[in-house]
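Task 17 of the worksheet. Students: predict the tertiary structure of the chain below and write it out as structure tokens. Keep your answer in the requested format; marks are given for formatting as well as content.
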Amino acid sequence: MQITITQKEYEAISFARSEIQSLIEAADDKEYLKSATDAESQLYSILDKFKKAKSKNNTLKIIKKEVKKQCPHISDNIAMKHARQILKEYKKGK
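Model answer:
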């Protein structure tokens, strides 16, 4: 599974990691709350991308399994290539 993230999302992860230590001190200023809210938004974006990628991966595995049922003699790599093509064609048809 491959996921790409933006630089801003990467910075949000770094921010969240460093802020865990700061949370112990429980600062209540508005600037902190704004930064934390922004970081939370970016982390949700990463989670959303992860969920979409995982769902696509699971769908490809199911399609690959069906391709292998129909053509048990083909290799796993070829079956996955066919699965990707089938999914691509399916998405075009929507």
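Marker's comment: The two ends are 24 Å apart (CA to CA). The chain has a mean pLDDT of 81.
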